[in-house]
Amino acid sequence: MFNLQLRIISHRLRERSRHKQTMMEKVLLSIIAASVLCVVSSHVQHQYHFVYEVKNMTEAQSYCRDKYTDLATIDDMEDVKTLRDMMDLSKIDKTAWIGLYDDMDSWRWSDRHAEVEFTNWWQGEPHHDGSGEHCAEMSGNGKWNDNPCNTPRQAVCSSVRGSDVTFILINSTMSWTEAQSYCRANYTDLATVRHEAENQEVKNLADGEEVWIGLFRDSWKWSDGSNSSFRYWKSGEPNNGGKEACVVMNFDRSGLWEDWNCAREKPFICYEEIVPKHKMRVSVKMNSALDLNNPEVMEEVLKQLKQRLKEKGVNEDVKLSWKKQPDGKVFHKEKKKTSKKDEL
C-alpha cells in the first residue's frame, strides 16, 4: 500500500454574485493504491443475449442495435465456449446469426488516394460466384470481372508523376497480391482506371489478355466495425453456396461457423457493452476549514484525480463521479480523535 498525493492549487471560486468570492485552499488527497489499480484494469466487456425470435440478418441487426449494442462479435474461443454454454438447443434449429458478413459493396482501389467513381463491369458482375472473389480483372474486351485473388494473371501497373499517368503491362502471371507488391516496388501501384479513356488504354495494352487491375474489396467484416480477426469456420466454409454473405454459428457442430443467405430467417445473438464500475475510497487531509461538499470543490477534486490517473498510465475512457451518502453529502469527518481527515 502507498499513498498518492494530489494538491489542488489555490484559486478563487466565483459565485453568482460578483461580490461574493471565496478562496479554495490547498488540499492533500490520499488514494489507496489498490483502488487505483482497479481503475486501471477496467475495460468494456461483452454480455451476450440470445434472441429466439426468427429474423433475417438485416432485421436481426436492427433489433440488436435498438435493444442492445449490435449483433454478436466473437473475439476468441472463450467467447465461443460462453455462447455454447448459453445456447438452449430446444429453442432453435441448430443455427443462429452472428455479426459477421461479407461486404459485397466494399470495392476500392489499391491506390488509397483514389475514389471508385468509374466502373466497367460485365453485365451481372460482380456476382461473387463461389468463395473469395475479392479482386477485379479486366477481360480482353475491356469489361471487368470479379475473380479469386489467387488466380494467376498478367497485371497492369501505373506510374504516376504529378498529373501524368503511364500504364505498364507485366507479362509474367501472378496472384493479385503479388501483382500489387510488384507494382508498388517498381512503379506506383496496380492500375487505377478512372474513366473510359483510361479503360481503353489498359485494354489496348493488355491486347486481349485478362489482366489484374487495382480494384479489390474487403471481405468479411463485423457488424459493429470491430477489427477482430478471429474466425471459426466449419470445414469447407465459407463456400457461398447460394449468395451466402452472412454467418451463423451451428450449435449442432460445436458452434462452428457457416455462411448463409442473408434473407433466411433465424434466431440470432446480440451483445451489449458492459463497462465495469469500481468504487474508489478517497481520504482527504485538510490544512484548513475547506468545505469539501461544495460542488465546485468536488468538481476540482475530480479533475485532479483524472489528471493523476492519466499520469499513472490510465489512458482509457474513465468516468469518475461522487456517490452521495443517505444524508445527501459526499464527505464526512472521521470520528477518530487523532484523525483530521474527511472520508468518502
UniProtKB/TrEMBL annotation:
Alphabetical UniProt keywords: Disulfide bond, Receptor
Alphabetized InterPro entries for the sequence: C-type_lectin-like, C-type_lectin-like/link_sf, C-type_lectin_CS, CTDL_fold
Stated name of the protein: Macrophage mannose receptor 1-like
PROSITE patterns: C_TYPE_LECTIN_1, C_TYPE_LECTIN_2
SMART domains: CLECT
CDD domains in the record: CLECT_1
Pfam family, one: Lectin_C
PANTHER family tied to this protein: C-TYPE LECTIN DOMAIN FAMILY 20 MEMBER A-RELATED, C-TYPE LECTIN DOMAIN FAMILY 4 MEMBER K-LIKE-RELATED
Domain C-type lectin, chain residue ranges per copy: 43-158, 167-271
Gene3D superfamilies reported for this sequence: Mannose-Binding Protein A, subunit A
